[in-house]
Amino acid sequence: MPQDSKDTKAQMAEIGLSGLARSGQYVYEEFLPQLQNEKAHKVYREMRDNDPVIGGVMYAIDMLLRGVTWRMEPASEEEKDQEVADFVQDCLSDMSITWADTISEIATMLPFGWSYFEVVYKKRDGKKKDGSSSKYTDGKVGWRKFAPRAQESWDGWEFDDDGGLAGMWQRPYPDFNRYFIPIEKALLFRTVSAKTNPEGRSVLRNAYRPWYFKKRIEEIEGVGIERDLAGLPVAYVDPAILRADATDDQKAMLAMIKKLVINVRRDRQEGVVFPRIYDDNGNLMYEFQLLNAGGTRQFSTDAVISRYNQQIAMTVLADFILLGHEKVGSFALSSDKTSLFSAALGTYLDSIAEVFNRYAIPKLIEINGWDTEQLPTLVHGDIEKPDLAALGSYITSLAQAGAPLFPDEKLTEYLREAASLPVNAEVGEQQADEEGMPQPGNPAEDGTTAPQPGQNGQAGATTPTTPKGTLTPGFFPAEDFYGA
Hints:
This protein is an alpha+beta fold. It has 14 helices and 12 strands. Strands 5-4-9 form a 3-stranded antiparallel beta sheet. Strands 6-7-8 form a 3-stranded antiparallel beta sheet, with no helix packed on it.
């Protein structure tokens, strides 16, 4: 063992800081004031919930992530490691909040940059009246739920002396009390971890500028359309009511006319009742008109808004959702863009799995008193289903080249899953039985010799020869493939 000296302690000590711009419990990495701290939560929520393009992208992401399959891989093929993996898998399916809903809540880190969850445990003692019921009665400790702590309820971060995150302060509805959730009892998911920033970075951050201008242009467009249809309200009034020394009745008349001009609308109840008064010389004292603008506008708001929509979708690699809207875009281009989009989502799934594998699963195993040396890992499936035609051609090419593919239980399982084929339990049993049978040309335990290919143990009886490259083992019994 090395000597514990002052030099060793000095080398192991942390000297610098990450450089995160923070003061007290708040982070100021964002240079736009309207996107700092709780203001950012309101803006990103409005972008997500109010914009059709961003809402469509977020919905697509949510549905794709919900459809991904997850599995628990044991640390080894030993029986004890398999039992631990099965236990963790059972805990995921025994929570009060479903795993699909948990993934959907975790995905809120994309619009907000981060998501925070309090880990709540329970004892697996069967059914109970509260939310800690379990399908199991083994008395072990499992997950009750990963309780989401909404970004809008955030009320500050707590940092330790080294700049690391110690926990999150929360002030939620409906009691607005302040709660502290330590990081030891929580899981933090972030899109990025630059400067160890607990707030990550919203995937909508680069979409803010085009969204801002698009929103303003749409508002101006709506007002312009309304004014073009209704016309510009104009009221001609008696100059006497515009004077500073006007009477109270005259001032009330002016206020009423201003309100009429401002609030005029064209709908089913349109109409204006206006006094028709002439002076001593026969001039009309009060008049109300709607002036229509002649000609067309110089700018096409459709083109401008479409440009901003495209920029918004581009920032999250989802501009493929706009292909075809303008009658442009090929299938090949759409395929390339969706592949890139799926690859990006796969990376976020990797980070989600890593948080569970590094923090949630080891703590669960430790609480139950098991060895934490050999831990199972949470693994996710693919976002997109593979092209079965291309996959089939590839497998066939490998088989024709002489690659030993079958029987292979894992490969068979993958191919069935890729094609959404039902799992055949008899195949696994058949393969297990075949593993214990004597191979052709090799002596069996009783000294006999297994039949050679093309023989069934009877004179003159033969079986069909499997064509080169035919992928029958592991999928179908030979008699089903060729006929009895």
